[in-house]
Amino acid sequence: MNRVNFNWQIKHYNDLLINEFHDLISLRLEVFVVEQNCAYQDLDGKDKKSYHLICRNGQGKVVATARILPPGISYQDVSIGRIVTDSSIRGKGVGHELMLKTMQFIKEEFGNITIVISAQSHLISFYNQHGFITTNKEYLEDGIPHTEMIFKP
Questions:
Q1: Overall fold of domain 7-151
Q2: Which of 17, 54, 147, 152 is spaced 20 to 30 Å from 134 by Cα?
Q3: Extents of the domains making up the chain
Q4: Nearby residues of 102 by Cβ (< 8 Å), 6 or more positions away
């Protein structure tokens, strides 16, 4: 199998180029709004206070991204949100690599701390593989079942 080389970067919003922010928002809208048929307010003001993981394929296209929110933005603890992969790379391990890189950055930037996510409920087992456990708080977010999950070091 010919493995695609991916380019990974993590940048604070203040360091993103306009085209980088455009491309990561474009991917988020493609998946969360169009593919999942869910109208919601993606630009919630939290991007400006966050770090953004960006994964590009060999052609420079953004194919995965995640938002890392410092403590006090969405939760008292650090959180990860807007975790998304392009449909063309799903099932190839890129989502797992995204989580590993995101969590490694959090450990380096913030230390060994608790991380909270609001996971789409059908992805609970995916996040379990990265050490997240459910808090049993289930709710609808924009019409999609979500579950609060926590990682404790």
A1: Aminopeptidase (3.40.630)
A2: 54
A3: 7-151
A4: 10, 53, 66, 68, 80, 83
